[in-house]
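Please describe our next protein:
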Amino acid sequence: MRILSAAEIERLVPMSEAIAAVRDAFAQLATDKAQSPVRSVLRVPRHDNFILVMPGYVSKPEIFTVKTVSVVPSNPHRGLPRVVATVLAVNPADGLPIGLLEGTSVTALRTGAASGVATDLLARKKVSRAVVIGAGPQGRSQVLGIDAVRDFDDIRILSKERRSADRLVRSLRGKTRARLQIADSAKDVRDADVVCAATNSLEPVFAGRDIQPGCHVNGVGSFRPEMQEVDVEFLTRCDKIVVDQREGAWAEAGELIIAKNEGAITEDDVFAEIGEVAAGLKPGRQGKDEITFFKSVGNAVQDAAVAALAIKAAKRENVGRDIKL
């Protein structure tokens, strides 16, 4: 079994390869060649924490993974990360474990890759500006994901803490084709071709009326029914709402659930799963003025796809610690 750290995973798996693998995994999910049950959520009232358990299987390359994600809001006060994740990879043929991976890096990489897939399928080909809201690890991966599939003039980073945005811009210098800048306010979305929301916000992070015709939005931060990164007005303006998986979205995507409860949308307003578009079963963007929205709450086939890439590269380059059980 290969044990891989966050630094090793980041070095072994380029974003472009992660995007290709996640795109294929989504297509497998849409064509019944992969499995991803809705994740279990275990709440720990004693500590005000909760733990997510996410099993996933893809058939090519064949791998089964289980990811555990612990969300501990009080951890930053202890000097520890708010989110702690681990991915166990298993060979489905014999049931033996083949990898143990630092999961927060896998999560960031596969989430950025998912937005890369969605942006490639749903955004206009000719773009100028993007806005990424959120300057944490997910914000970083969003920048890398969309930069890999579109040639932006500039990508603006918006964060409640300007120092975080500045730190992210500095850490990514020389790693993107686009010029990186700090956004002044949420109104910067008014001239954006692509917007990525990657926060833990309980309320909308931009005004839906500010989104211009032709814009594509990725919403990847909220993952609980009470969380809401985009407002109801934005959803009613969308020409296409695409999700990572319908079952998971209607169980956990706060934006969709809140809008449905208000009577603004129905489940039929979800146009497609992203895998249906990736597999060619449904069309992506069909007009330059379409407003499109990709909502992801996170899907275990993404973890499996990235874990398979990392383990294969680690074996090839003899990276990580290999232990026998």
